[in-house]
Amino acid sequence: MEKKSLTQQKIEAFEARRSALLAMGGEALVKKQHDLGKLTARERLDRFFDKGTFQESQLFVKHRSTLFGLDKKEINADGVVTGFGQVNGRTVFVAAQDFTSSGGSLGEMHAKKIWKVMDMAVDARKPFVALNDSGGARIQEGVPALDGYGGIFYRNTIASGYIPQITAIMGPTAGGAVYSPALTDWVFMVKKSSYMYITGPDVIKAVIGEEVTHDDLGGAVAHATKSGVCHFATENDEDCIDKLKFLLSFLPDSCHSPLPTVPCTDAPDRLCPELDGIIPDRGTRGYNMRKVVEAVADNGIVFEPHELWAKNMLVAFIRIMGKPVGVIANNPGFGAGVLDVNASDKASRFIRFCDAFNIPLLTFADVPGYMPGTNQEWSGIISHGAKLLHAYSEATVPKFTVVTRKDYGGAYIGMCSKLLGADYVMAWPSAEIAVMGAEGACNIVYRREISSAEDPAAKRKELVQAYETQFNNPYFAASMGIIEEVIAPRETRQRVAMLLNAYQGKVQTRLEKKHNNIPL
């Protein structure tokens, strides 16, 4: 038998060591992961990346703690798989926590692996994706684990607005670990197998006596419907990864990169005759604004974040002529499309994201005003509403507004009016642009005439009709140049496509300064 060379022996030893590390926590723990309905970290990466393109980084990193018996414990890859690869032909950097290896707990070297791949993403100007599945900080390592989180938070913040950052919560994420997802641009969660919270059910029960389950406290549905922390609540790991990849298809590699364009099979001059009949005859009736967005989008494809939260406001990614566009729209089908605290926050964050990555903004306005009441006032509707004004005013991307029906008062300004920076404002013939509705306006302006009339009810009706004739149409605003154009609803896609083409070279600068001070 021929004796193996020293080099061959070393290669075989390397391959054996690598194979052992790729086994993660071993068969028993991998099976347990599967029994929980979850893929392993490496299975997730196999589904995420184009076949054969994933390049792993720092596989051989090991923890160096000797406390509490850790010196005798092997944690393969220190519980996190990092590297980069191709997603639909585009480079993406990733950190995927491995729950089968010491519960994916974050220690000093685990964190430094994440730091490294985040630094690589920033230097390469490519998106960064975190697949979180971790029991939290590695308690045995103490403060170095906490410092690990601090380094991640810092990098999340520095990279904000420079490269897209996305987090998929695919298992437990608790305590300090929740802040990195909150600092990223988009958060996905998996129903029934993922959760996020600062303090868990046991601590809550011990401290304040409240009993709650993991899922009710911080599950995907709870965060998608109640807190708004979760943008996409998905059915399982596979669904989560597929939707994450679809989101990436709308996003550029960085703020300095061109928008991803796909071949378009939809005509720019396509009319939308279904929109001519979408507005109800009665102003108090709602309709589904999503159908308006679908009609305008290429092939009716709409990707909607926050679909379950603040439903009176709709935000979505669409394409027009193959290029990404960010849509912000009041949805009269929920709460009359009124602006409130949550709707303002939802729209403001979306506007700032799109502006950071040079995605044009298309606004559909049908808003009766701001939500009244002590709950909203005491919840800070003034400062939250101001975020919307700030976000629109700050944005320098092309901004187009279509008024479909009601556009009243301060909310008219807040939904990207011309003086808030809209490049072009259009209105349908059904548009009503005024300080307030006819009834409320007449009760103020004509209070004396109505009260002194022989028949106050008849007088009010007469004055309301006169007010509606003058203001419950778009022509008064158009006559003063407040809006650029009145269009038939069926012409909306056609007009928007023309404007996007005309404004694709738009360049607008702001005053030189360190940064704005948005009313947070």
Which properties best describe this structure?
520 residues, alpha/beta, 2-enoyl-CoA Hydratase, Chain A, domain 1, 2 domains, 7-stranded mixed sheet, 16% strand, elongated
Q: What percent strand?
A: 15-25%
Global geometry = elongated
Provide the structure class: alpha/beta
How many strands in all? 16
- How many helices? The count is 20
Q: How many structural domains does the protein architecture include?
A: 2
Helix content: 25-40%
Radius of gyration: 27 Å
Mean pLDDT rating? 93
Structure overview:
It is a single chain. With 520 residues, this protein is α/β, with parallel strands linked by helices. The protein folds into two domains: 34-248, 2-enoyl-CoA Hydratase, Chain A, domain 1 (Alpha-Beta Complex), CATH 3.90.226.10; 273-437 and 472-502, Alpha-Beta Complex (2-enoyl-CoA Hydratase, Chain A, domain 1). It contains 20 helices and 16 strands. The chain has helices at residues 6-22, 27-35, 41-48, 108-124, 143-159, 179-183, 201-208, 214-218, 220-227, 237-248, 289-296, 341-356, 374-378, 381-394, 409-414, 438-445, 447-452, 456-471, 475-479, 492-502; strands spanning 55-57, 80-87, 90-97, 128-132, 165-169, 172-174, 186-190, 195-197, 232-234, 313-320, 323-330, 361-367, 399-408, 424-427, 432-434, 485-486. The chain has a seven-stranded mixed β-sheet, with helices on both faces. Strands 10, 11, 12, 13, 14, 15 and 16 form a seven-stranded mixed β-sheet that branches.
